[in-house]
Amino acid sequence: MTDPVSAEPEILTEKRGALGLITLNRPAALNALTLEMVHLIDAALDDFEADRAIRAVAVRGAGGKAFCAGGDIRKLHDAGKAGDLAPALKFWSDEYRLNVRIKYYPKPYVAMVDGICMGGGVGVSEHGSHRIAGDRYLFAMPEVGIGFFPDVGATYFLPRLPGKIGVWLAVTGDRVKAADADAFGLVDAYVPSERHEALLAALARGAPADEAMAAERVHLTPALSDADRATIDSCFDAGTVEGVLAKLYARAAAGSAFAAKCAATMRTKSPTSMAIALRQCQIGPHMDFMEAMRTEYRIVSRVARGVDFYEGVRAVIIDKDNAPKWSPATSAEVTKEQIDAYFARLGKDELKLRGDAA
What we know:
The protein is of the alpha/beta class. The protein contains 16 helices and 10 strands. The chain has a domain at 11-137 and 187-216: 2-enoyl-CoA Hydratase, Chain A, domain 1 (Alpha-Beta Complex).
């Protein structure tokens, strides 16, 4: 499949000795995922898994600016807005199956993340066995800002980050660069961008992924201060979004500029989305990966039938007025029963994953 904007293939694959290499190839669109790309990545993984000469797989993004900035949100918005949910639900179900495929891939899966990595890009990198950050690494799960929620396995991996880092990332959508990502465990190593080709060459020669990564790894000093991490751990442990905000306001009143910034950021996000994200982080530690993915499909099936996702995409991506009218408008108006409904089972429409009974 080719990108209609550039007439280039959306995915490039090649075999370099013992390495199978996948390149996301929509640089003009920040390598945003399409359904076709999901299918092409899955097919490449099939090919590399079956090839006994391939000992490891690596995935990277073309263009130097982004690894993958997420899914093609505008296309998903337009289909749902037109009343046709089938294309969007097909994208999400196949994307989530690919996330599971990557998580349990039998060969080393090395994600070379150099540039923007958000949303769907997190799904095709974070679950790999080896996650490498380059100089331009920039992670975020910014979905609460468009009336969506942290998906692609965030229910599983965000609550497993140290302290309340995952909750902070989920409900604020804040961005993290390479040094902090390494400190938090979002990546396994920082490797300077100029050394990425050397790492790929080592994998092509058949070097074990652990050894190839260790040979190029460089340690960085985290940017987030100890005081700000303490603020995260003390404020984002509240049971409700309103509780988090109350703690942030108190910290801000005591002089924490970081707390004030977090609170101001949260006031711009969808109250419903933040409540969903907080619930994900509360229940995620008790789930295995497969159940986390099924849970996210339950949520997305309801979000696609809601209001805030379409309003958020309108305000942020289409009209760019950055003035969404959320419904409900405040966190105080969001009820437990409303959030419970997003997590309810789907019956016959549950996400089917490999190994499930027919």
